């Protein structure tokens, strides 16, 4: 069910591009209403299928639109301190991990899953007035048009050409876009695998469930501190591409050392480093997108990155478990996952050498 919601949130990219043409405020109001409505419907359902439909058609698309438009809005409003602004925006995930996780458990223990979902829907509805307060912006980027577009009006070729231009499919032929895409996909695979398998892998190491859940909070704290990368980039103390290489290696190491870490303090430190570096990588990838493509193409870039991330959600939830089933240990799984961010750096290194990105 969560996988269905995740895939739905990824696949709404082209719809997001269209909605953003009408203004970011309208797009965010629409997506916030979708999420709230979807969650409000869940307590009224009577089967798992109905819940899945609500998540797939309402909650998932709402999350996908909100995710893309939010990042684009930050880029349009904070041209000078975008890295810091992006870091503060991403810190909301850390707050959610630290606050909403235990709060949700309290809701479940007190009111059951229907009451808990209703309360979460009420919290989510606060997104609507927040979206209403956003200063409206629309992208100014206009893809180049063909000179003979009018002469082929009404033909299937003209329809395809207009779609190609409006959806900015030209991005899919750009080396820099695929370089960025590989980095984003690598981080998504790594982080999604961690979310699904972190606690189970600690249980295999003979930690109690409560201890394993508590240790995961170290990632939330680290995620919050990931925003500290902002001042270094905004003040020009280090290039974004260079910081991406350094942080990617650190993210990989937080997985690669896992088989040799067994005591509580060491695991807490490694988990904190994972949270910090994963947060920094999400921020740096957003900044790279801004530097390479400019603020007016951000919606298009983020939307297509989201679409291409759809298969990753399924892969990242299956791969570590499959490796565990074969080997009987999460050690190999974490090593394989840890190598992915490091290997994803090769296109970026090539771009740095060729174009000085």
From TrEMBL:
Keywords from the named record: Membrane, Transmembrane, Transmembrane helix
One Gene Ontology cellular component: membrane
Compartments (UniProt record): Membrane
The keyword Thylakoid belongs to this UniProt entry's keyword annotation: no
Domain of life: Eukaryota
SUPFAM superfamilies the record matches: MFS general substrate transporter
Membrane-spanning parts: 27-45, 51-70, 82-103, 115-134, 175-199, 211-233, 240-258, 264-289, 301-324, 330-351
PROSITE patterns recorded: MFS (PS50850)
Ranges for domain Major facilitator superfamily (MFS) profile: 1-356
GO MF annotation: an example: monocarboxylic acid transmembrane transporter activity
Membrane topology, as annotated: Multi-pass membrane protein
Cross-referenced Pfam families: MFS_1
PANTHER family: MAJOR FACILITATOR SUPERFAMILY (MFS) PROFILE DOMAIN-CONTAINING PROTEIN, MONOCARBOXYLATE TRANSPORTER
Protein name listed in UniProt: Monocarboxylate transporter 13-like
Organism listed in the record: Acanthaster planci
Taxonomic path: Eukaryota, Metazoa, Echinodermata, Eleutherozoa, Asterozoa
């Amino acid at each position: 069910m969560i996988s269905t919601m995740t895939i739905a949130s990824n696949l709404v990219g082209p719809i997001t591009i269209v909605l953003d043409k009408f203004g970011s405020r309208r797009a965010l109001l629409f997506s916030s209403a979708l999420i709230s409505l979807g969650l409000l419907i869940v307590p009224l359902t009577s089967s798992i299928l109905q819940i899945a439909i609500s998540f797939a058609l309402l909650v998932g698309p709402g999350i996908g639109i909100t995710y893309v438009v939010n990042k684009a809005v930050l880029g349009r409003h904070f041209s000078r301190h975008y890295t810091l602004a992006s870091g503060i925006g991403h810190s909301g995930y850390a707050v959610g991990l630290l606050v909403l996780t235990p709060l949700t458990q309290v809701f479940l223990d007190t009111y059951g899953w229907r009451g808990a979902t209703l309360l979460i829907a009420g919290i989510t509805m606060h997104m609507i007035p927040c979206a209403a307060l956003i200063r409206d912006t629309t992208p100014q980027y206009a893809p180049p048009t063909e000179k003979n577009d009018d002469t082929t009006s009404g033909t299937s070729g003209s329809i395809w050409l207009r779609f190609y231009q409006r959806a900015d499919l030209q991005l899919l032929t750009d080396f820099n876009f695929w370089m960025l895409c590989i980095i984003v996909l690598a981080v998504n695979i790594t982080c999604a695998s961690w979310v699904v398998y972190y606690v189970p892998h600690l249980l295999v190491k003979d930690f109690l469930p409560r201890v394993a859940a508590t240790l995961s909070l170290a990632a939330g704290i680290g995620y919050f501190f990931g925003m500290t990368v902002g001042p270094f980039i905004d003040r020009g103390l280090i290039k974004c591409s260079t910081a991406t290489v350094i942080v990617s290696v650190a993210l990989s190491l937080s997985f690669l050392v896992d088989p040799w870490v067994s005591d509580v303090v060491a695991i807490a430190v490694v988990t904190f480093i994972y949270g910090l570096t994963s947060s920094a990588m999400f921020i740096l990838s957003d900044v790279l997108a801004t530097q390479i493509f400019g603020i007016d193409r951000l919606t298009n870039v983020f939307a297509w990155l989201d679409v291409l991330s759809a298969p990753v959600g399924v892969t990242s939830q299956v791969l570590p478990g499959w490796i565990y089933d074969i080997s009987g240990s999460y050690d190999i799984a974490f090593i394989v996952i840890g190598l992915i961010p490091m290997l994803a750096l090769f296109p970026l290194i090539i771009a740095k050498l060729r174009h000085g990105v």
